[in-house]
Every structure is written in C-alpha cells, then in structure tokens.
Amino acid sequence: MWSYIGRRLLILIPVIFGVSFLVFGALYIIPGDAVDRMLAESGASAETLARLRDQYGLDDPFLVQYGRFLSQMIRFDLGRSIITDRSVKEQIRNQLPATIELTLSALMIAFLFGVPLGVISAINRGSWADAIGMLIALVGVSMPNFWLGLLLIMAFSLQLGWLPTAGTGGLDHLILPAVTLGFSGIAVIARVTRSSLLEVMSSDFIRTARSKGLRQVTIIVKHGMRNSMASVLTIVGLQFGALLGGSVVVETVFSRQGLGFMAADAIQSLDIILVQGTVMLAALAFVLVNLLVDLSYSLLDPRVRYT
Amino acid sequence: MLLLLIFCAVFAPVIAPYDPLAVAPFDILLPPSPDHWMGTDTLGRDMLSRVIFGSRVSLRLGLVSVSIAMSLGILIGSLAGYLGGWIEAALMRVIDILLAFPSLILALIFVFALGPGLTNAMIAVGIASIPAYARVTRAEVLSAKENLYVQAAEAVGAPSRTVMFRHILPNIIAPNIVIAALGTGIAILAGSALSFLGLGAQAPTPEWGLMLSQGRGFMSLAWWLSFFPGLAIMITVMALNLLGDGLRDVFDPRLG
Amino acid sequence: MRFRTLGLSLLATLIVLSGIGFVFADGHLEIVYAVNREPDTLDLHKGSSRYAMVPGASVFDTYLYLTEDGEYLPWLAEEVTMSDDARVYTIRLRPGVTFHDGTPLNAEAVQYNFDRIVDPATQSRAAVGDLASYQRTEIVDDLTARVYFADPHPAFWFGLSDWRAGGPHSPTALEADPDGFARAPVGTGPFRFVEWVERSHITIERNPDYNWPYPRAEHSGPAHLERITFRTIPENQSRVIAVTTGEVDAAMSIPPQSVIELANNPDIRIESRVLPGTGVILVVNGSKSPTDDPAMRQALQWAIDPTIVSRVGYFNAWAPHLGSVMSAPNPSFLDLSDMYGFDVEEAGRILADAGWADSNGNGTLDKDGNEAVLQYIGFPSAQTTRVIELLQATLRPIGVDVNILELDTGAIQKARQSGDHNIAHLTWIFKDGGFLRTLFHSENLGTGWNFTHYPMAEVDQLLVAAETEADLARRGQLIEQVQRIMLEEAIVIPTVYQQQINAFRSNVQGIKLYEVYGEAPYFYDATIE
Question: pLDDT tens, A292-307?
C-alpha cells in the first residue's frame, strides 16, 4: 500500500511539471497582456507602462519567464497580480474559504439527495418511482447550471423574495448557489448509485442474505450500500472536477465571492499571473483529490488490491 | 426529439418566421404573443427565429468539438496502445496532464489563450475532451492485441498498418461512438457555458449561451430572453443523452 | 420508508448547512450600498480605479471641494493661492484636523503625501498625473505648505480636489506599513475603515471625532450613520433586484434598461447624473477608406441620430449627445446639435453626389474600387452591441455595411492605434477640458489615445495653447473652437452622454453624489429610517 502511494506520487511529478508548462505556455501566447489592458482602461502614461512591463519581466524571453515561474512555484510563490498589485497567494487565500464552502455544500446536497434517489430507483426498478427518479437524473445532467441559477433567482429572489440574489454572506446567500451547483451532482450520483446497487444486489452474497430472510432494507443498508459506495466514490472524484469548473459559472451567476469568480474576472481583465496561480491550484487540488479517491477504494471495497 | 432538432438546424431558414438578425427598433422586448411565440429581444429580433437558428450553432459546436476530440483521441490512444514502449509512456503522460484539469477549466485556459470566439471555443472544448477517447481507445487496442487473430496476423507478417486498420480499428469504433454521443451533449453544455462567460460565440451570433447571457440583464423585465435559450439547450442535451444511453445499451450492455 | 430517507437527508442537509454559518447583521443607522466593482487598492496614491473613490470619498477628505459649476471651495485647505505663472501654490490648512489614527494634518503631512506620490518606488498610476511637473513642497509653518512646479500647472486646482492627489493619507500609517495601507487606509474622513473582505464587501464606521464636513454639508459634528457596508455585486441585473427586494439600501451604476422599471417603483428613488468627459462617441478614422472621404464622414453624421441611439441603445436613460467631443457638464461645452440634420435619405444623397454607387451590384456602395464597409472596434458590452447592431440596420438601406472587428481586450488598443478601424467606440471621463489633448492632439497618434489618424494642425495649436492659458475665459474659447472643428471635419460622431445612475430605497435620505463624477457618494448627511 505504501509503495503504491509512493509510486503514484512519483508519477505526479512529471504530470505537475507538464501542467505548469501547459498553464504557462497557454497564457504566454495570448496577444496583449495585462499592461495593454490597463492602458486601454486607465490611460496610464507610456512611461508607467514600460516600467510595469520591465518590473514584471514581461519582455523577457519565454524560457526566462518560464524558469522564473517554475522557481516561484517550487517556493510556493504564485507571484503578484499586475492589476491589483497584490500577492496572488494572498488573493487565493482570501477567496478559498468561500469556494470550499460552496463546493462542499453542493457535494453534500448531491450526496444527500442523489444516494436516496438512486436507492429508491434501484429498489423499485421498473416502476413509476424508478422512471421519475431517472427522469430527474436525466434533467439534472442535461440542464446548464447557469440557466438553473437564473431560474432559481427569478423564482426565489425576484418572484417570492425569499432569498437574496447575489453576494456572499450567511446561509441565505449560500442556498441558491449550492443547489445550482449540486443539482447535476444529484443526477450523476443517483444514476451511479442505482446501477451499482442493481449490480451488487444481483450478486451471490446478497441472494444468500435474502434467502436467510433478512429484511430488504437491512440488506440494502448493510450489504448493498457498502459495496456500491466504491463506485459512488469514484464519481465523487470526477464530480469534484465538475464542481470546480461549475463554481466558475455559478459564482459568476450569483456574484459570489470565490476562486471561480475571481478567475473569471481575471480572465476578463487579462490578469495573467492571477489566472496562472488559480488554475495551477485548481489542477493540483483536482489531482490530489483523485489520488485520495483511488486510495480510499481499499477502505470501502476490500476486493481492490494494489499491485 | 433529436430528429426534430436536426430538422430545425437543417431547415432553419425555411421554418424560422423571421430573419434572426433583423433589427426592429420599434418592436423591442415584446412578450411572447401569436406574432412572436417567444417574444422579441432588446433589438426587436424574433426570439423564436433566433432559437431555431441557434440549433445550427449549437449542433455544429457539439459536432465539431467532438470530431476534434475523437479523431485526436483515437489517434493518440491507438498509437499508444499499438506501439507501446516510450511512445506509449509519453503519450499517456500527455493525457494525464490534460486529465489533471477539470475539463471546463481546461477549456477555459485554451479559449483564454486562443482568444474568445466560436471557433476557438470549439477547439478548446475539443481538446479538453480528448482524454476520454484516448484512454478507451488505448484500452481497446491493448485488449485487441491480446486477441489471437491479431497475433496470428502479425505472425504471418502482415504490415503493421494493415493489422492496425483491418483488425484493431473496428474494435475501437463502438465504444468511441458511445462516448461521442454523450460527449456531444457535454460539449454543447461546455460551449454554451463559455459563451455565457463571454468567451465563446460573439454577438450577433444567435448562440444559446450567448443569448442567455445577454438576456440575463433583463431578467426582471423580460424573462423570455433567458428562459427559451436555456430550455433549448436542455432539450438538446437531453436528446443527446438519451441517444447516448440507447447506444450504450446496444453496444455494451455491461455498462447499462 | 423511502420518503423518510428523503426527509431525513433533507433535514440533515439543513442542519449541516446552518452549521456553516448564519450571519445576520442588521443594526439601526446602517446602510448597505451595492457597488459594481471593487477598488484595485484603497491606497489612492497608487491606484487608478475610479471605484476606489466610492468608499474612498468617505475615508478621505480633500483639500478643495469642486462644485458642479467648476468652483473650488475651501475644505481641508482654508485657502489656496496660485502664483501668476501657475508654478507655485500656497496651501493654508484648516486647523484641528486629525487623521483616524489621531495624528494631526499639518504642512509636514502635506509634504509627505506629495513626495510619496512622485516617488518612483510608490509606483503611482494616476495620482502622479495630478502632480505633473512637481518639484518640491516647502513647509512655511505648521499649517502652511508651498508647492513648486517646474512648468505652469493650472490643473493643480483640480488635483487638490481629487482624492488621489488631494486626499491626504496618514503619514504615520504609511510609514508603519506602506503595503498594508492599501487594505487598511487611514484618512481624515467622516468614516473610518473597518474591513475589506475581498470580492464580498468593504465596511466603514463613523468617525466620532469628525468635525470638518465638506462645504455643502447640512450639519456639523460626526456623521449620522454608524456603519456603511459596500457590497460588491458586479452583475447589473443582480444589483437591480437587490435594491428592489431591499437586500441593499442603495445601488450604484443602474443599467439603462432598468431605469424605467425602478422609476415606477414607489419604494425607490433614482438619481441620474451626466458625466463630464467625451460622453459616448464614435471616433472616425480619417485616413482609412472609406472614411478618408469627407463625404462618407458627412453622410455618417446625417445618418446617425443621437435621439434614436438613446432610445434603442440606452432606453432613453442616457440622454442624446448634443455636442461633439465634450459632454454637457464640462465647462465650455458647446451645443452643436444643429450642425447636421438627421436624415438617412440626405446621407444617401451626399454619398451619391460624391460618386458612391453600387457599381458591382453586390448591394454595397463602392467608389474607385473601395467598398463602403466600415470596420468597427469597441469593447464588447450589451449597450455597445445594441448600438452597433442599430447602426448596421440604419446604414444598410443606404448601402453602407458595418463590420465588427472581433478582438480581445488586449488587442483592441493596438488595433485602434494602428488604425484598423473606421469607427472606434470611445468614452472618457474627465472634468477639465485639458483631456482633449490626450485624445485629439496629433502627438498621440499611433501610440497614444488619438484614434482619428487625421492630423489637424489647427486643433493641435489650439490644444497646446489651452493647456497653458491661465485666463479661464480665453481658455474656454480655445476649447470651444476645438469642439467645433472636430464636428465640422466629421471626425467624431457623438451618440449619447455617459450617465451615472444610482438607485436609493426611499427610506434612505441625504446621500449626495460627488458633483463632478457622480459615482463617489458623500454619506456625511445621510440618514436611514
């Protein structure tokens, strides 16, 4: 097990190196930089701009800039944003809690509604309950989250006036964004729960349990659920990526504090250094979560062995 | 449902009641009525016509990006699977790198680098979805290589190109088609999200995501501006998902 | 059973969610003000964003107060005198003014502020412009400072009324933490800085020691309100909904389309202010075909009616532009709306007379092998898109096409500088007429902000003369002449004035907007019921 973890971490090194090259390279080739953009908006003088360019080393050759980027990364320094003249790390640190709050709530909603929905569908396979459950799941995966967000705003903020439209704050500010972000997760988790549960329930040991006269519910909870959680967990890993991507859209729709909205803004204002830092962080988080998911298989599904 | 969409896309100029770009300064923001089933937008353009024309844009977006993803994915996957060795290792690391990003964020980076626009959005979404095809293809190629008939063909000295195309390729088509059907829906969602964020299609293109984002500013004044384009996206993606599920059941009952 | 599972999970979600934190803050005398953008920094010496003035105007005071009529009233400075050559200014401070950290505002502080702005290490982006050829500040006595410039600098009056250069920052706080000041500003204003939760809100609270209100104030002593929260809500529609539902007490930068809707709401009061500067204008490229032909430029003037642009593009909330390159609130603004009539058919006749005809039958006019296709460049936004689509629809019937050049934001400036456009969208906010030099002097062609690509010697001379003319009346005449020439040459197309529109809940009273730009609110007299 430990050697497996070690090997997985070792493979990560070239991957992370490649990720950094891709992030840096992609953003390097953009025509126009943040300094141009500032010029276009604030009308700063030509000397100011030349000084800024020089200070941020924007005119250095590619490899020099990439080398600087890498050496900063190794020291966990993400640089300074040109637009706000502030450390990227600090900006990320300020935005991170709001995004974590949102993604965890969304994940929780996805889980707490998705799993029961899948279970209900599986138990009642072929019935109208199954059909409704799977229709909800189909709608969930097909609905653009930005549209769902707008519909929720129209219904709950504009018409009913129950919940705020935008901004960051307490629970009332969290509900609509979390539901919007979690909705597709409900669908995905329900589908996976249903199919893996069906698979498990047709296996031998469940049939044995059933023949021993155990109650349906007991069987599902004790045996079925445990065994199907491994596949649900895989999906959680993938869902985490979807949530990170989705948070860009959802935070934008709800004008909510967070990394995603900050990244979207940074893209609009060509704040390259801020985009680089945020995207690197998102990629690292995603890779690590997937690693953790892989590792936790063994805890839930004893059949998985590391070789 | 899908046929209806394709019908809309193909015959858009015939069935659309108005020119989707025709501006009517005196008919702005009319609510849905018998004249304009989905109302008119801020420039007095007929929403129904724009939504119908939007089906062309969205289906094209889905198909083009999936074609990009599938062709590159199959190429990478089969090269890796068939040739093995360091080429396989290198190619799969590239795929790992792409997989290290949540796909929408990967698409965002590419569209950011290439600059906003519909074509660039298609390319970005396409590149971001390569890994799924590449991985499946590689796995299928590897298992096909183990098959006796491939080994036999190689043993009798068939050129590797022949082996590849005649014996292995047919095996990898089916799973890729299933992924492609589901992937088209995902690509349409991703593309419209990019447009919604202002990085995809640009005005005055009748693209659903863009229409939605333009309509967003008029939510309290004209709900129809953001309602119908979103509905259109959902119905399209739903149809493609149903198609994908159906294909999966046909080609690969194990996954159902 | 299955419903119980569902019910339980619902309950569990709610319990967990509420554990995450439920903040409910609502006190008396507290206002939530929705803003569309965060400042870049609250160190106004450094920053360049106009949005810094929104909280900035409450945290900082200025030496002088500029009225709508262009008059400079004493505020932190009891008296300012300028030497005849406009090179030396003497500032006499009001006694008894203290910063929020308790330190006094004295001549030394004035010197520290100006010296810091011009220090290259400060990397000032905007304030340094207000100081131009600044040399040094001399401390005459504790409350009197004398500022020296190398060149005549009449615009320093404006600098003294602008928060960036004219709003004293506490030297003690700056010395203690020069970088941290950006996030913890210390000024002399009626409100003290409390916190800035990035991308969420900025909070300020009443300064109990305050007793030096701005000249137009209606009371003395500390402000009425105890606390103000500036909540960042970038999306226009979300701000409108937030003020409609009462989530916030006021919202700035209301989009034009929402004005009618809000104006009909009895709980809401709308305040609209025309901003000085250029207004929304289209700059015409005088050297690129087809707009190198004066007839084409004249035709555009006839075809593009500001009234229609105002109605379709801005729902009448931004008023039609009556001048040329200057907005109505600017001193020496000239109403030139009768120079051209607005008649698309006349535009067609002008083109026909000048030899434009559709000789190849493609539906678009041409002349000497050049097609009448206008390339348009602008930052994409809902309004500009609507305007340009309107233009396309207006000009199509007379055989002129408009093509939008799709560029990303970084490339737009380069394309405008190299003249890839025929018409470029431009807005510029500025009070003093001197800004015209930045936009229309030929020295700023190619690398600067002059997108006309059409050098005009007479305009150049007038602009240079205006910059150093100390006689305000004479200066006004020079600037009027520039406005007239620009429109005669048809090198700009005025469309609408730029307007700052704010919405207030009716229980909020007494918020006054900065008379010049309108985005900076004065909360000193404000009350809430």
Answer: 877 776 666 555 554 4
